[in-house]
Amino acid sequence: MAYIGNSPANVGNYQIVDDISSSFNGSLTSFALASGGITITPAKSGQLLVGVNGVMQEPDDTGTNGFKVSGSNIVFSSEPESGDSFWGIYQGQNVDVGTPSAGTVGETQMNISNSPTNGYFLSAQSGDTGGLTWAEVDALPSQSGNAGKFLTTNASTASWAALAGATGGGTDEVFYENDQTITTNYELTANKNAMSAGPLTINSSIEVTVPSGATWIIV
User: Fold this and answer.
1) What is the pTM of this model?
2) Contacts with 73 (C-beta within 8 Å, 6 or more apart), sequence order
3) What's the chain's average pLDDT?
4) Which pLDDT tens digit goes with each residue over 45-85?
5) Are strands 86-91 and 14-16 parallel, antiparallel or unpaired?
6) For residue 52, how many other CB atoms are within 10 A of its CB?
7) Could you read off the pLDDT of 170-205 as tens digits, one per residue?
8) CB 197 within 8 A of CB 181
């Protein structure tokens, strides 16, 4: 396939440069560059790592020190001597991805596993497949008529609950109210005291446990 400019091999690639030491004669400074017999054309000197006699050479686009690149040739600042060794590595150019054009990134490119639903949000998908998935936002219960309450959950459903404390008419905080029937097993916290307003009914097979160091008072 035809292309304009440098070879596509310049992009994101690393290649060993063919040995050019057989052409060193103490007078030549410019040598053709190839990798695997194919001509390479670095865009700048810094794309080459070069060693002569085991000494790293400085890439210098001015040609004053080390070496520079001129088209598909390497040009040393001084003539390599006959018998000098050579090695080189050609580093491909960095790939500039740029900014995607509008409308070019969709759900397929984002690896989303399911179809969207209004009001859902994108969540990371667990498992080996990775990617994203549309997930439902847990809805809050109605706020109407629940002023001053706090949000709680039973591990499956969220609900509003009244803050513990005294209540009363208007801004009064006089009365502490409790239920009159115990329907669920309960154990007081060790070394804590509790108080309830009676009379109370404890349903059949229901137990209230008062551990050592705790006291339950019914008034």
Assistant:
1) 0.41
2) 30, 31, 32, 33
3) 85
4) 999 999 999 999 999 999 899 999 999 999 999 999 999 99
5) antiparallel
6) 20
7) 877 778 888 999 999 999 889 989 899 999 999 999
8) no
Tokens of 137: 């936002």
Distance of alpha carbon 117 from alpha carbon 133, whole angstroms: 11
Place of tokens 């209230």: 208
* CA–CA dist 200, 110 (Å, integer): 60
CA-CA distance, 51 to 39, in Å (whole number)? Answer: 19
Residue 68 carries which side chain, given as an amino acid letter?
Answer: K
β-partners of residue 30 are: 75
Best CA proximity match to 16, nearest among 44, 35, 42: 35
Alpha-carbon gap, residue 219 to 199, rounded angstroms: 8
How many angstroms separate the Cα of 130 from the Cα of each of 74, 110, 123, 133, 141?
46, 11, 11, 9, 32
Contacts of 117 (CB under 8 A, 6+ apart): 134, 136
Cβ contacts of residue 44 below 8 Å, gap of 6+?
59, 61, 69
- With tokens 């209540």, the residue in question is 167
138, 123 Cβ separation under 8 angstroms: no
Long-range contacts of 44-49 (CB under 8 A, 24+ apart): 44/69, 45/69, 47/10, 47/90, 47/91, 47/92, 47/93, 48/17, 48/74, 48/88, 48/89, 48/90, 48/91, 49/88, 49/89, 49/91
